[in-house]
């Protein structure tokens, strides 16, 4: 395996004195230079979280060799850890139903280079967005779904992820509820954009719920997908002010931009290994 230029280490472990010192000492002893580092202690859970970016240009080591060198420290602290090549781009499969605003924004950001991921394809339970996806010269997979074919259709999605080497499934307004088995298979690597400021207005029609409630703020939430609908660990949220004059249609229009921004930001942070799971919550070491 070839030498790596820059590495990202992220981990969590039970908190105790000396973790940062020992991690830093190990990499210093190997001649690595720390470029960026962020830490957080969840005092209530007594859990420590850290993300560090290291310059590896002075070492002619492969990623596996660096991981092997780090293993003793990871074991000493019983870490949940990932050590990755910072230049490796996350491979993603995108799922969409009929609303296309998040997909448009994702594909445009990918094409412009502001979203450094590799899109291996787009799947949909409708055929209506094929032309958009193929305009971007990306594979489009129409996978119809019904209550009887749900599990088989999900196996097709998993097979497409496997075939393309996709490490992440992005639900860019994919309006089908994933089965418990699918959620277990994709734990921590399936991201959904929910079109409300959770925990408010769960379900398929949040803008109508917001209109009926008469809220003055609406928003969007990007979260990891779990079997509990709209309950997954939140990665990013944003809101916009609205008023009594806004119809449900206007709320939906205002929400579209928020959804697109929140999903792109959440996917970028996930792809940059900035998001760590903390039980049913997340720690996000954003820039
Ligand atoms: N296991 C999970 N699957 C999905 C989640 C999730 O949190 N856990 N989020 C949804 C997206 N979503 C809200 O953000 C959502 C999508 C669909 C529905 C819903 O009630 N769908 C109906 C069918 C609707 C239709 O066909 O248009 C259903 O599946 O019976 C609620 C919320 C993505 N999947």
UniProtKB/TrEMBL annotation:
Per the UniProt entry, the Enzyme Commission number(s) are 3.5.1.10
State if Nucleus is listed as a keyword: no
One annotated GO molecular function is: formyltetrahydrofolate deformylase activity
Residue numbers annotated as active site: 230
Catalytic function, reaction form: (6R)-10-formyltetrahydrofolate + H2O = (6S)-5,6,7,8-tetrahydrofolate + formate + H(+)
Q: What GO terms in the biological process aspect are recorded for it?
A: 'de novo' IMP biosynthetic process; one-carbon metabolic process
Is Transcription regulation tagged as a keyword?
no
Give a short account of what the protein does. Catalyzes the hydrolysis of 10-formyltetrahydrofolate (formyl-FH4) to formate and tetrahydrofolate (FH4).
Q: What is this protein called?
A: Formyltetrahydrofolate deformylase
Q: What is the lineage of its organism?
A: Bacteria, Pseudomonadati, Pseudomonadota, Gammaproteobacteria, Cellvibrionales
